[in-house]
Structure formats: C-alpha cells, structure tokens
C-alpha cells in the first residue's frame, strides 16, 4: 500500500449525471465533482451502483471518468468502478482508468451466472493486469451481485499485490472484521483497507475496523457522514450515533418514494444547490408527482440534521 491515508474517510459514490434527453451530462459530472470537493470529502467512487454502471455503455463510462478527473485530479482520491458483465469491456475500462490517472480501480464480481471462484478471480485479475500500476478494490455486494466474497476467494485475490482493499456492502459488519484480519495477515498493519458499504451502519462499520466508507447517500448529505467520521476519530461514539440515527431516518424516508433512491437524491441536490443531474435510466423508476411530498420532507430532514451539527 503506497498511501493508506487517501482511503481513510468519506468517499461518496458518484451519481449518474444525465441531461434532459437522458444522455450523459459531462457538465453535470463536473459540477457534482466541484460540489463534492467544496464539501470536503476525501474522494469519489465513480461508476458504481449509484453511477448506474450496468445501464451505461463503455464509451459513456469513459466520458464520465474523464470529466471527473478533469476536476478532481490532485484534489480527491478517485476510485473507478470498471466492472462490466464481460471481461473484455472491463479490461478496456481498467486500461482507460489507469491512463487517466485514477488512484484505484474496483469491480463487482460477474453477475447473473454463478461462476466458480477461479473464474471470478481470473475476471478480476485480468482487469488488474490491464491496470498494472493501479491499486485494485474488490467490491463485495452479495445482495445485488448474487455472489459473495468468500474467505477463500479473498485469499486467492491477496496473491495479487495490487489488491489493497475490499469495499464491503454486505450487511454483517462482522464481514469487515474478517476481511480486514485476512488482509492484514497477508500484508501487514496499515497495508490493507476495508470500506464500509451500508450507509445505515457507517458508525458500526467504522467502529469494527472499516478505514473509511463508500456510500450511495453520502453525496446528498456529506456533512452528516463527515461529522460522524470526525466523532469516531475522536472516540465520541454517542455523538456519532445520534447523527447516524438522523441519517438512517432520512434514508428510510427517501426509500419511500415510487421513484428510485438515486432519482430522489438527484432531485434533492437540484433543489438544494441547483445541480442539474437529470433522472435515472430505465428500467429504474423515475419520480412521479406523488413523490413530491417525500422529496420535500427528506430535504427538510437533511437541512434540519445539518443545522444540528
Ligand atoms: C445495496 C447498496 O446499494 N449499497 C450501497 C453501497 O454499499 C449503500 O451505499 C446504499 O446505497 C445505502 O446504504 C442506502 O441503502
Ligand atoms: C453505493 C455504492 O457504493 C455504489 O454506488 O457503488
């Protein structure tokens, strides 16, 4: 691990940014990047679930990453999720990500077919080989990917020296401990990172050993996660927990909408900051008029929680 510090902290998952026609808006991407820099986050996780990666073409994903890099270079840690559902496209994105100078690449396992572990390892290692000077982050999100990271697969991946981290989105926080322990056993203290995935348990994840967090709701309320992180660093667990409860209530409220969570969050960013990031790509459901009250309520809850800090 060259520099563990760049992974310690709050790393929002970047939202897909579209124009009114549903095409990629590089202006939106740049504006969101500048917005997050101004909020003081540690980095961004580009092209993951929140980036609607599985609904975007390879060329679109390259354009998004280039637009992020044009604003973020030297200011943010950039982790580019490059997984596609076939190896060739993933390898192409990995090579491209290294060429634009990201800090790390990341990938989910292959989805739909439940492939043997040796095939998953080869898929990840092929991407990593296409970005040989770039660190690699395993994205474990079994409830969506359909395949979970096992200890044997992690041990196999640790043979690749570029594998420096797991972004863990499984729900048991115990998984963070197990992955961290195995990583440190192989690499030594300070040389392996685990990111907390579920935003609803950011505090728990950090307390059990996550070095930082990557999350889909950080970008809409970074102040809350930055404050939780500061409190944890100071050992102020009760204060961190109180903010976690606020964040969780806000997440549950946003999830009440008919429209997808990402659509709700982009609409809130539009209302709070004038950021024009568009909607979500089908088949994800967009907002409907009945969502108006939920969006307004969630925005008010975010503003109230920030005002309490
Ligand atoms: C399953 C899923 O999408 N997990 C995300 C990443 O880990 C989280 O950041 C969620 O978006 C967040 O916790 C809201 O439920
Ligand atoms: C939430 C998250 O980490 C992602 O968008 O991939």
From TrEMBL:
InterPro entries: Aldolase_TIM (IPR013785), DapA-like (IPR002220). It comes from the Bacteria. Keywords: Lyase. Gene3D superfamilies: Aldolase class I (3.20.20.70). SMART domains: DHDPS. The keyword NAD does not apply. The keyword Lyase applies. Belongs to the DapA family. This is Dihydrodipicolinate synthase family protein. It comes from Faecalibacterium faecis.
